[in-house]
Amino acid sequence: MPDLTYDLAMSDAPPYRYAKQLSFRKVRPASDAKMLIAFGRALYRASTGGCEAFAREFGASGAGFIGSIENCVARNPDFAAFLDEDQHTVGFVALGVSPRDDELGRVHHFVVTSSHRGQGFGGLLDDYARGTLRAAGCSRAILNVTAHNERAIRFYEAQGWRLQSTQDGATEKPGGLRWYEVAL
């Protein structure tokens, strides 16, 4: 029988890097404004099919979006974060807590760049959101998604989010909204 042992230390093969470096980075609204606005517009493109609703809600410049993120980080600096892969930002999440119920967390914004969807980054953002809200004392969390954003709906349901209610026609967003909740 041939000797099938192989001494890896003696290998002359070049070193390989199998994993990318992933990290979460706190958002600094003033210095990250351009990137935040780009993510906000990408989120609205994915959820409404365009950026018109983003401009109506946050202003043509996107300044209102920056203000909404400032409100998130004013409550807790961990409530807005970027997900970086090898120093390239691939995702963004913004969180909050219900003003009426301190145990109810809220996922305000959740987006992965289109070129990085379907590669596990959404799951990492979901884990970050749940862990951060749990650490803030929340026992459950809610989010909404436009009814026509089928990819996001499939993602949230696969992550264990459960449909709680729908809101048809009461919003400018196509098809209305679907509200989801998950226990933390």
Overview of the molecule:
With 184 residues, the chain is α+β, with helices and mostly antiparallel strands. The protein has a single domain, classed as 3-Layer(aba) Sandwich (Aminopeptidase), CATH 3.40.630.30. It is built from 5 helices and 7 strands. It has a 7-stranded mixed sheet, sandwiched between helices. Strand 2 and strand 3 form a beta hairpin. The radius of gyration is 20 Å and the shape is globular. The termini are far apart. 29% of the residues are buried.
Summarize this structure briefly:
The protein is of the alpha+beta class and 184 residues long.
List keywords for this structure.
184 residues, Aminopeptidase, single chain, 7-stranded mixed beta sheet, alpha+beta
Explain the layout of strands and helices.
Elements lengths: L21 E5 L6 H16 L3 H7 L4 H13 L4 E6 L2 E10 L6 E9 L8 H15 L4 E7 L3 H9 L3 E6 L9 E7 L1
Parallel strand pairs: 4-5
Antiparallel strand pairs: 1-2, 2-3, 3-4, 5-7, 6-7
CATH superfamily: Gcn5-related N-acetyltransferase (GNAT)
The counted number of beta strands is 7
Number of domains: 1
Determine Rg (CA atoms, Å): 20 Å
The fraction of residues assigned to DSSP E strands is: 25-35%
Oligomerization category of the chains in this entry: single chain
Largest beta-sheet characterization: 7 strands, mixed
Named at the architecture level, the CATH assignment is: 3-Layer(aba) Sandwich
The N- to C-terminal Cα distance equals 55 Å
The shape, in one word, is: globular
Total number of helices: 5
The unreliable regions are 1-11
CATH topology: Aminopeptidase
Strand order of the largest sheet: 1-2-3-4-5-7-6
In N-to-C order, the SSE pattern is EHHHEEEHEHEE
Give average pLDDT, whole number.
89
Q: Class by helix and strand content?
A: alpha+beta
